[in-house]
């Protein structure tokens, strides 16, 4: 085989590594958010999006991250910290990180989205990142440990296939249901009660990440010793997964309502 075909072949053989909630998780979050937007925010968002929708643009940051001109955005999807931190230590570590991460980039992108002196293109890109990152930081393993790359290095077997802890939580568990994103949003959403939505929406990005971090500590602790994720894992964890997706959706709406008011 000629040498220059080798990289192409290797690329084709490499399984696509997903780095965030899978496509359906992100889109379900966008869909839930749509249902909680104010009239004004909806109008502003539509001006930026044109014919696109929040669910459809929610995965854009995952689509571009592999291209050279966007390679700097790779760390924008997660915040890793040490294990065993209490709340104050966690928030302190979160705020002390100066290299770009999901937390400090989210704050920057919200500022760009709010700034009407920026170009439409800049504000549109910021909107897409906000939609995506609010989703990512609700995936517990996007607030995990650096030493195992948020669970990417913890190898597991699930339903007869090789996977890892991170991927299980990005998409493996959610795909288990075999639903479309509209079906996921449609199944989760009607059970949301007004009072609970309001309480969730009051939380700050620091709190969202602290919740993810705490959930990740539990998930790390629940890794099956033999690496085999059995049939009891899904029922034991589906409620947590559902709650993180619902929370991401209603909080995304709240932060967009506030930023675009
Ligand atoms: N790479 C390194 N840490 C990661 C994390 N927490 N999530 C996704 N990708 C990562
Ligand atoms: Zn992501
Ligand atoms: Zn991920």
Automatic annotation (TrEMBL):
Keywords: Disulfide bond, Endonuclease, Glycoprotein, Hydrolase, Metal-binding, Nuclease. InterPro entries: PLipase_C/P1_nuclease_dom_sf, S1/P1nuclease. Pfam families: S1-P1_nuclease. The keyword Nuclease applies. This is S1/P1 nuclease. It comes from Hymenobacter volaticus.
């Amino acid at each position: 085989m000629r040498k220059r075909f080798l990289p192409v072949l290797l690329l084709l053989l490499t399984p696509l590594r997903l780095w965030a909630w899978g496509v359906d998780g992100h889109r379900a979050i966008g869909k839930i958010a749509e249902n909680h937007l104010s009239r004004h925010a909806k109008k502003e968002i539509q001006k930026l999006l044109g014919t696109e929708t929040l669910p459809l643009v929610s995965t854009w940051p995952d689509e571009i991250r592999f291209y050279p001109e966007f390679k700097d955005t790779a760390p924008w999807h997660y915040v890793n910290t040490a294990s065993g931190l209490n709340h104050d230590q966690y928030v302190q570590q979160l705020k002390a990180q100066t290299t770009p991460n999901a937390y400090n980039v989210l704050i920057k992108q919200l500022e760009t989205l709010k700034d009407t002196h920026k170009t439409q293109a800049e504000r549109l890109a910021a909107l897409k990142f906000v939609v995506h990152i609010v989703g990512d930081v609700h995936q517990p393993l996007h607030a995990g440990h650096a030493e195992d790359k948020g669970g990417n290095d913890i190898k597991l077997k699930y339903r007869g296939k090789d996977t890892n802890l991170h991927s299980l939580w990005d998409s493996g568990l959610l795909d288990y249901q075999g639903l479309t994103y509209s079906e996921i949003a449609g199944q989760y959403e009607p059970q949301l009660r007004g009072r609970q939505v309001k309480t969730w929406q009051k939380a700050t990005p620091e709190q969202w990440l602290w919740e993810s971090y705490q959930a990740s500590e539990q998930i790390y602790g629940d890794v099956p010793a033999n690496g085999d994720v059995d049939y009891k894992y899904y029922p034991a964890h589906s409620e947590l997964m559902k709650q993180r997706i619902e929370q991401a959706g209603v909080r995304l709406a709240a932060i967009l309502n506030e930023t675009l008011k």
